[in-house]
Amino acid sequence: MASRVREASVVVTSPPYNRGVAYHRYSDRRPRTEYLAWIGRLGQEVRTVLSETGSFFLNVGGSPKDPWLPWDVAREIGQSFVLQNVIHWVKSIAIDRRSVGSAVGLERDLALGHYKPLVSRRYVHNAHEYVFHFTHRGDVPIDRLALGVPYQDRSNVGRWRRPAAELRCRGNTWFLPYPTIQSRERDRPHPASFPPELAEWCLKLHGRSRLGVVLDPFVGIGASALAAVRLGAGFVGFDVDASYLAVAVERLKAELAGAGRSAPRDRGGLLPGGPGRLTPLSNGEGRIPRD
């Protein structure tokens, strides 16, 4: 990593979970000890490039048969960092109208979001993943209200010592469903991607005013890159699979075009292929300079 980025203010990424996902070029079924040792080296590498006041957001999901996996991963990364926050990314939720009472005003039961169906007589559907927030010492200030939500009852505002803008902290449960797609091959050609909004929320929580360069060492089809572009941050990402990077490039082009912006200019070789062109490097690295 140190050969690709001098210093990152935020690392936001999701490594393979070692659950047998069918990636193009990576074997996702390794001996547990070997996999966790590799995750430990990831933590060591990130430590060399993350700024002293930086944040490392690591998305990991378990399975009903292996619920300890995310925490085993967290313990390995914890050899190099302090675990400052644990966030639950909720991908699907069911709300019973009768259980929440009349104050919410629901007219019917709700079932929101998507999950991978599970046929089992032992397990319930796995509808959430973890986002572990690591820092060097556990003392990095965050922007709690960047993801703030309005108070349901304004009388509650006065209960807190220093309310701001009538918002309260969202807390550590983030309901963020995948958007509905018609074709995985066309709309989301990656077996284990996350929504760009998940990375965007991580960056906002860290603090937009302190965003420098964002790093994702498992960039895949570019969700974290999209998040960085939307917030005007610099970005460095790389992946072992050039086909995924090619998709990331096209997604970035579409994002920039939709926002009425041209592709960022090449600055000192940050983008290969000449000024204003977004193309992946042959060694699996792609960069977007800060505006």
Main attributes of the structure:
single chain, 291 residues, alpha/beta, Rossmann fold, eight-stranded mixed sheet, two-stranded antiparallel ribbon, globular, disordered C terminus
Structure description:
By secondary structure, the protein is of the alpha/beta class. It has a single domain (8-288), classed as Vaccinia Virus protein VP39 (Rossmann fold), CATH 3.40.50.150. Helix content is 24%, strand content 21%. It has helices spanning 32-49, 69-77, 97-100, 184-187, 196-206, 223-230, 242-258, and strands at 8-13, 50-60, 82-90, 92-95, 110-113, 128-135, 149-150, 167-168, 173-175, 213-216, 234-238, 285-288. It has an 8-stranded mixed β-sheet with strand order 9-3-6-2-1-10-11-12, with helices on both faces. The protein has a two-stranded antiparallel ribbon with strand order 4-5. β10 (213-216), α6 and β11 (234-238) form a beta-alpha-beta unit. α1 (32-49) crosses α2, α5 (196-206) crosses α6 (223-230) and α6 (223-230) runs parallel beside α7. The longest helix is centred in the first third of the chain and has 18 residues, at 32-49. Residues 265-291 have low confidence and may be disordered.
Task: Give the overall shape.
Answer: globular
Report the average pLDDT across residues.
82
Spans of at least 5 consecutive residues whose pLDDT stays below 50 are 265-291
For the record, the count of structural domains works out to 1
Q: How much β-strand is present in the residues?
A: 15-25%
Query: What composes the largest sheet?
Result: 8 strands, mixed
**How many helical stretches?**
7
Radius of gyration: 20 Å
| SSE pattern, N- to C-terminal | EHEHEEHEEEEEHHEHEHE
End-to-end distance, in Å? 22 Å
Estimated helix fraction: 10-25%
User: What is the CATH H-level superfamily?
Assistant: Vaccinia Virus protein VP39
Which class best fits the helix and strand makeup?
A: alpha/beta
Q: Class, according to the CATH hierarchy?
A: Alpha Beta
CATH topology: Rossmann fold
CATH architecture: 3-Layer(aba) Sandwich
- Tell me the total number of β-strands: 12
Strand order of the largest sheet: 9-3-6-2-1-10-11-12
